[in-house]
Predict the 3D structure of the following.
Amino acid sequence: MQKVHRHPGIVRLSHWLVACSGILLLFSGFGQMPMYKRYNIIKIPGLSWSGDFEITLLIHYLAAVVFTAAIAFHLVYHFRRKEFGIVPRKGDLRESVQGFLAMAGLASEPQHEKFQAKQRVIYAIIGSASLLLVITGLVKSYKNLGAIVLDPMLLQLIAFTHTIVGVLFMMLFIAHVAALLLKSHRPLIPSMFSGKVDSDYARQHHPNWHIDEKHKR
Amino acid sequence: MKVNRRTFITGGAAAGALTFLPTVPVEAAPSDSSYATLIDLGKCDGCAGQPAPLCAASCREGRKDSFPEPPKSQLRDYWPQKKHEDWSTKRHLHDRFTPYNWIFVQQVEVEGRTISIPRRCMHCDNPPCTKLCPFGVNHKTAEGPVYIDESLCFGGAKCRTVCPWSVPQRQAGVGIYTLWQKYLPVGGGVMFKCDLCRDRLKKDETPLCIEACPKNAMQIGKRQEMYTRARELREKYDGDIYGMDENGGTSTLYVSPVSFEKIDQALAEQAQEGKRKKIVRMNKPENMLDKQKSWAYLTMISPLLGIAAAIGLSWKTEKEDE
C-alpha cells in the first residue's frame, strides 16, 4: 500500500518529548498536591517513593526542562520555517462542530487539508494550556531560587492557575489519547511512530491536502 | 549531522549554558527593614513558678478568636483513611504545636543548667511551606511574617511535611473544604500556626508573646538590627546562634550560652526517655528548595535551549532544502 509522509522526524521527536515529559509532569505534579499518601498510592508496590515531595519535585523540574525546551523548539522551529498549517483560522470552530457531528454520523465529513479544523482547534486549546503551564511554572521555579519575596497575591494567582490548568491539561491529554481509540482515527497511530499514513486514508480524510510528490513513498 | 560553524556555535552555547548556568548562585535576601526576632535563651526561664509560660498563655488568650471551632457534624474521616485530625478536644496540650497552641516552651537539661526554649514558627526567608503550597494560600510577606490564609486553605498538610519543625498543624471540620467534603473527599481542614501577630505589627504593636515576656527574653525589630544584636550576644555568652542559616535562613534568631548541637542532643535524649516519637528539634535542616536550586535554574533556561536548537536545526534544514 502506498504511504504518504505526514510527520517529519523532528516533529515526531518533539511530539514524543512533550508527551513523555507531560506524563511525568502530570504524575509528579499530582504528587506535589499531597494526594499519594492520602489516597494510598504509596502503598502500591514500587510507588512508595511517590509520597516524597523532594523526589516528585526533582522529577517535576527535570521533566519541565524537556517539556519547556520542546515547546520553545516547536514554536520557533515552525515559525522560522513558516509552517502554520495547524494554526486555527477563521471558520474552524463551525467546521469543528461539523467534524464532531460527522464522527457521530450526524453530518457529512468536511473537506480537510493536512490538518482538520477540529485538530487545529484542539491544538490551540492544548497549546494554550501548555503555554500557561510553562509561564506559570517558570515563575514558580524563579521564586524557588532563594529568599525571593514576590507579591503573595500574584503568587497565589500563579499557583492556582498552574494547578487548575494542570488538571485541565490532564483531561485534554486523556481526551487526546481516547480519540485514538475511535476507529476512524486508528490509522493515524502508526504515523506517530513511522511518520507515514496510508495514501488511501489521506485521500479519504484529507482530500484538500496537497501532497508533494516527494512526500509519497 | 554535518557540523558547521553556525551549528557548532549554537550547540556550544547550549552546552555551555547547561554546564555553567546551573552553578550560578541566585540569592536574594529579605529586606533589611523587614522584621526579625531575637530569643535570648540566657534569659528565658520558662516562667518558673507560673502555671504556664506567659508567652504561650498570652498567645492562647489573645489569639483565641483565630482558633478553629469545628461543628461535630463536619468532623469526618479523610476517605479512604480511617482517621481525621481533631485537636479541638485536646486544647489543653501545651507541649507541642497544635491548631490551638502556636507557641510552647521546651525545657532540657544541658551541662547542668535548665535551658528553656520558646518554640514557634521561624518565619523562614525561603519557606518551603509557602513556596510549595499547591494553591498558593500560604504567604511570605515582605515584612517577614509567614501566614496561612485560613479562608482558602483546605488542609492538605503538605506545609507541615516540608517544614523541618512541623509547625503548621491541621484541624479537621473547618474551612472551605466543608463545602464539598460530603460529596468529594478532597481536603482535610485548615492549617494553623503563628503569624507573628501580623495584624498587630501593621499597627506598630508588638506580638503578644514578646509583649508578655517578663524577662525581656524576646525582642522584635528590624532585621539588620536583630542580626547585629544576636551576634553581639553570642560574643557576650561565647555561645551559639540558631536560625541564621538553618533551613536557608530565618527571621527568628535564638542565642544560647550553650551550643545548639548539645541542646538538640538533649532534646533527642529527652524524647527517647519519654518515649515520644516526634520532637521539635534544634538540628541543622537544609532547605529542600535550596538543595534543588540548580534544577530550578535549569528549568528557567530551558526555553533558551529549545530556541537555540530550533534556530540551529531550522537553519540546517533550510540549507538542505536549498
Q: What stands out?
A: The longest helix of chain B spans residues 293-321. Chain B is about 35% helix and 15% strand.
